[in-house]
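Lab meeting, item 3. Inverse folding demo.
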């Protein structure tokens, strides 16, 4: 038992009791845990009253911005009417309405919605569904998954197995067997043999990247591979957009080998790229979409796996059952909030706003290329990564000591102290990631650029 938190220093209590996620807890032994208490629009405030620009929309979540009363009211209204009922053999109106709405937004015949409470569960659901689908359709040896190097797909053991970050997986091995990795689409670090006169042709690179997935399928044996999991724009590593033609070729490869194409849109759905789904932005048809985060703009948690009619068909026959579920999947409050959030998308034209402004955002970030530490600026929509390098010409990256000293020891904290909440990430090469709320405009982009500029100049001085 502890005393009333209001009476205490929250950041001290946080260190004592709140086990923060993916956090080196010892770093807070003698320094306060930053504690955010309020949000409004694109800004958040800490417990001392200091204001920060939310350059990451929380965690790629708060699409419609902070402090939206109508989303809070939608939650309260639903909690009063029906706070909880499961979707285990029963329905409730908001889950039905939301499932129909997601099906209408989703491309092609993706018409069946299986709810979860977050992204990792949506990924887990997609893999389990793929496995059972092939068992039901007479191909029981198809169970493996191909995904891409450095990609993050969540923390449940299946999703973590699909994740391409060995350091994140090592403490929990052995994980679920049957996952294999292919190259991602980081053209900035494309293999040298693809260069012609020092330049990599994006289309040739896209063909190569897609073909490497086919190689992985063939190496495993196509009759053992159930699915390929890819993000429209890969987050971990720092926002790798697909080269032109990549997804079209990947679709052909998946069709050729009867392998399901799963579009993991936990970040890229709901306007992050200026479309409801990332698959729309790049014009491909997945067999399943996994999504979560932005569906409610974070006002309540929910995740979903959206499944094609073709895949669902055998599950809708006889005594077949998808033996899978989550108590809080399709929670009434979260479903109501998601519907209200999607109303905001429609009313305020959030997707169009992103499409109208994405090139201005990129253009503003591109100004940073004059700094010696900025190697690359890449991304799409309102989703960008800035790769930091020690040498722009050779693209030499930082060594472990420099990452520890500059990225962890200085940059993350300095950006925050200078009023910008964003992410300095070294899961691949070191990058700063930016994904502000979708209501952001040129003034947001300018503020981001100015804080980044001065902080990166200071960081460079420390190398
Ligand atoms: C592409 C992708 N998949 C899955 C996940 C896991 O989502 P969650 O943290 O909601 O479980 C994430 C989280 O960032 C993600 O980016």
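The presenter then showed the designed sequence:
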């Amino acid at each position: 038992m502890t005393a009333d938190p209001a009476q205490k220093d929250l950041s001290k209590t946080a260190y004592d009791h709140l086990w923060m996620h993916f956090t080196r807890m010892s770093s807070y032994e003698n320094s306060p845990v930053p504690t955010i208490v309020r949000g409004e629009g694109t800004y958040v405030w800490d417990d001392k009253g200091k204001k920060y620009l939310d350059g990451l929309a929380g965690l790629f979540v708060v699409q419609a911005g902070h402090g939206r009363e109508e989303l809070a009211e939608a939650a309260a209204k639903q909690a009063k009417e029906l706070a909880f009922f499961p979707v285990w053999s029963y329905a409730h109106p908001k889950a039905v309405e939301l499932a129909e709405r997601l099906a209408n937004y989703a491309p092609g015949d993706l018409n069946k919605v299986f709810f979860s409470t977050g992204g990792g569960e949506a990924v887990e659901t997609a893999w389990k569904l793929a496995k059972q689908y092939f068992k039901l359709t007479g191909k029981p040896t198809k169970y493996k998954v191909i995904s891409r190097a450095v990609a993050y797909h969540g923390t449940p053991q299946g999703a973590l197995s699909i994740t391409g970050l060995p350091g994140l997986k090592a403490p929990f091995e052995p994980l679920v067997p049957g996952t294999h990795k292919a190259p991602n689409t980081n053209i900035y670090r494309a293999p040298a043999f693809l260069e012609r006169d020092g330049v990599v042709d994006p289309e040739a690179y896209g063909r190569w990247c897609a073909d490497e997935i086919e190689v992985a399928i063939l190496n495993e044996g196509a009759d053992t591979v159930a699915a390929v999991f890819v993000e429209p724009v890969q987050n971990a590593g720092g926002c790798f957009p697909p080269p032109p033609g990549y997804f079209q070729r990947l679709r052909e490869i998946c069709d050729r080998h009867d392998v399901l194409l799963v579009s993991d849109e936990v970040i890229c759905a709901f306007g992050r790229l200026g479309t409801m789904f990332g698959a729309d932005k790049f014009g491909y048809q997945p067999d399943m979409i996994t999504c979560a985060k932005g569906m409610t703009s974070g006002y309540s948690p929910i995740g979903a796996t959206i499944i094609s009619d073709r895949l669902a068909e055998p599950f809708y026959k006889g005594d077949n059952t998808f033996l899978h579920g989550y108590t809080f999947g399709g929670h009434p409050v979260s479903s109501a909030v998601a519907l209200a959030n999607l109303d905001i998308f429609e009313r305020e034209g959030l997707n169009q706003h992103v499409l109208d402004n994405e090139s201005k955002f990129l253009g503003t970030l591109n100004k940073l290329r004059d700094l010696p530490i900025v190697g690359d600026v890449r991304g799409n929509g309102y989703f960008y990564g800035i790769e930091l390098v020690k040498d722009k010409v050779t693209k030499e990256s930082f060594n472990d000591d420099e990452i520890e000293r500059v990225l962890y020891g200085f940059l993350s904290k300095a950006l925050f102290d200078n009023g910008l909440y964003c992410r300095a990430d070294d899961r691949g090469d070191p990058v700063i990631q930016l994904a502000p709320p979708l209501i952001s405009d040129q003034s947001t982009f300018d503020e981001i650029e100015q804080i980044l500029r001065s902080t990166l100049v200071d960081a460079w001085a420390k190398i």
